[in-house]
Design the sequence.
């Protein structure tokens, strides 16, 4: 697609994209990191990767053992 466009058209597309990006709200990483840590800690009680899945609700638990005699 870029081969079919002239340099002027490509620069116009880049300008349009930059104009969209400049409108995005900027938040300092320090603020965002604190919010992210707080959210993760608030969700930790429900996180199955941290606390595991109860045996009775685990759909992947083997239903029966294999007996080789």
Sequence:
């Amino acid at each position: 697609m870029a081969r079919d466009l002239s340099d002027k058209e490509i620069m116009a597309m880049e300008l349009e994209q930059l104009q969209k990006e400049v409108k995005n709200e900027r938040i300092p990483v320090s603020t965002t990191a604190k919010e992210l840590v707080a959210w993760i800690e608030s969700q930790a009680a429900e996180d199955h990767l941290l606390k595991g899945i109860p045996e009775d609700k685990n759909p992947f638990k083997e239903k029966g053992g294999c007996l080789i005699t």
